[in-house]
């Protein structure tokens, strides 16, 4: 699931404000152009996003806040071939907006900003390298003068992480994925080697394959490489090789599942990339020395890989995984022959997606509308559709639900069924049960921000009925974002090492 933008958490901005929304007399128009200082010699195209907030604290940038979703107006549209020196005028009311048309905002003072997402990655990870954006300007509504000018004058810089000597950035051209796409497709990973790796030419190490959550890449963990290395040097963690896999793709997070839209990522990982890594590094290279862990979408990915490739991996420690039982896809039941509405139940009560401190703060309907404004692909819901759904006649992933009405397409829902981990386990338990003995570990907070504990409980009940020895733990009061406090990572590492080296002594963990 997508990590909320925490920038605005401290704002004293309430839903009451937007309860006062009244329609303005005229649509709000903006002028958009390129500042010559950018030196942009070629026309630019991409997703134009305009954000507006009534927050009065001076801001450097404005972005949606998923823990206070009504606090930022957003509108999005595609623009093509914007040339330097050319000004275009935008009618924001005729575009895809959230939470409502800009002209419905009450009279008052606002801050506003424009962003151009040239590579259509904003829905996945927000502002990124080479995105163009304007300064934040102040306006007052209703407008009494000419349309405000939002001039792209800044570019997000490329941020290249410092790579320590014991970290290797690996790129591998996958034959299977390249054949699927008809062009070279790279698989990527950051490999963190243990402190004693260079002291021997023969010693092998267990290997941990870690998959990031939605919005991440394989480069993010490099920032924590020094801390991880020190923990292994100090004996707080056993020495293992850590491989941080990249699950980011143009359509979102591919979760290392073979799919009609993204290609055979699971097969490529297990039959191509891992064998190549084991040739390059002194890894155990056997089932009992290959482990999986990941959080959120990474948690789903690692459970999927363990279930589908039980002979390859020696265990998964999946935390806060995306829905693992489609009887509750964070609300709607996607197993019913006559589909439910994706936005609300039969009683009309909306399905909530995001909660914080016991408060339901963003519904599935609102999330879908915001995602549509940000861009039609790469967002969290669109990412699920790219993995789980079939390819449409237009070559794009078929949407599960109508973004306006919430109506679920029964054909698409049926196709999603083959990715229902709980059902896969039930249907294949006679074969999978013995192979998964001692290998499934799931940890989730009882206050998970995205209600992901609900599907975990359904899977838990299913596994118990099957006689599984899976270890599923619920951390009381923990959310999606504080699950790892109090040494959970160290504990997981020790449990993995105990499988790989059962006779070794490891440091005690909480």
Offer a quick outline of the entry.
With 510 residues, the protein is an alpha/beta fold.
Helix/strand structural class = alpha/beta
Q: Given the structure, what is the number of helices?
A: 13
Largest sheet: 9 strands, mixed
Q: Which value, in Å, is the CA radius of gyration? A: 24 Å
Beta-strand segment tally: 23
Distance between the termini: 27 Å
What is the average per-residue confidence, as pLDDT, rounded to a whole number?
92
Give the strand content. 15-25%
Question: Shape, please?
Answer: globular
Q: Could you name the ranges where pLDDT drops below 50 across 5 or more consecutive residues?
A: 2-24
Helix content: 10-25%
Task: Provide an overview of this structure.
The chain has 510 residues and is an alpha/beta fold. It has 13 helices and 23 strands. A hairpin with a 3-residue loop joins strand 16 and strand 17 (263-264). Helix 10 (421-427) crosses helix 11. It is globular, with a radius of gyration of 24 Å. The model is unreliable at 2-24 (pLDDT under 50).
């Amino acid at each position: 699931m997508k990590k909320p933008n925490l920038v605005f958490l401290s704002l004293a901005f309430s839903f009451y404000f937007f309860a006062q929304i009244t329609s303005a007399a005229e649509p709000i128009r903006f002028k958009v152009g390129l500042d010559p200082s950018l030196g942009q010699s070629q026309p630019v195209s991409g997703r134009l996003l305009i954000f507006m907030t009534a927050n009065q604290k001076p801001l450097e940038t404005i972005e949606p806040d998923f823990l206070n979703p009504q606090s930022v107006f957003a509108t999005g549209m595609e623009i093509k071939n914007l040339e330097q020196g050319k000004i275009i005028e935008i009618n924001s009311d005729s575009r895809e907006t959230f939470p409502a048309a800009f002209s419905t905002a009450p009279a008052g003072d606002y801050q506003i900003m424009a962003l151009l997402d040239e590579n259509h990655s904003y829905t996945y990870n927000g502002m990124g390298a080479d995105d163009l954006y304007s300064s934040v300007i102040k306006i007052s509504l209703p407008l009494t003068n000419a349309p405000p000018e939002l001039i792209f004058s800044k570019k997000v810089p490329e941020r290249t992480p410092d790579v320590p000597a014991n970290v290797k950035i690996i790129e591998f051209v996958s034959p299977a994925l390249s054949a699927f796409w008809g062009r070279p497709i790279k698989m990527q990973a950051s490999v963190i080697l243990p402190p004693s790796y260079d002291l021997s030419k023969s010693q092998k190490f267990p290997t941990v394959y870690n998959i990031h959550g939605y919005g991440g890449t394989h480069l993010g963990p490099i920032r924590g490489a020094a801390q991880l290395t020190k923990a292994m040097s100090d004996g707080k963690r056993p020495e293992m090789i850590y491989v941080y896999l990249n699950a980011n793709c143009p359509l979102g997070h591919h979760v290392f599942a073979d799919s009609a839209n993204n290609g055979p990522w699971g097969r490529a990982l297990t039959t191509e990339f891992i064998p190549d890594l084991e040739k390059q590094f002194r890894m155990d290279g056997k089932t009992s020395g290959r482990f999986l862990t990941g959080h959120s979408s990474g948690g789903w990915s690692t459970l999927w890989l363990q279930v589908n490739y039980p002979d390859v991996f020696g265990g998964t420690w999946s935390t806060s995984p995306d829905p693992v039982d489609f009887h509750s896809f964070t609300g709607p039941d996607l197993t019913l022959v006559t589909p439910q509405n994706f936005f609300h139940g039969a009683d009309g009560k909306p399905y909530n997606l995001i909660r914080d401190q016991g408060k339901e703060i963003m519904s599935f309907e609102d999330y879908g509308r915001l995602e549509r404004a940000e861009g039609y692909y790469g967002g969290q819901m669109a990412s699920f559709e790219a993995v789980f759904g079939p390819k449409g006649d237009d070559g794009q992933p078929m949407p599960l639900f109508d973004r306006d009405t919430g109506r679920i397409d029964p054909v698409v829902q049926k196709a999603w069924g083959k990715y229902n981990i709980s059902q896969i386990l039930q249907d294949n338990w006679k074969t999978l049960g013995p192979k998964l003995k001692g290998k499934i570990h799931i940890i989730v907070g009882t206050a998970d921000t995205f209600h992901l504990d609900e599907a975990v409980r359904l899977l838990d009940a299913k596994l118990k009925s099957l006689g599984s020895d899976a270890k599923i733990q619920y951390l009381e009061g923990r959310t999606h974002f504080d699950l790892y406090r109090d040494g959970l990572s160290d504990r997981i590492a020790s449990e993995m090492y105990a499988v790989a080296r059962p006779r070794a002594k490891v440091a005690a963990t909480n």
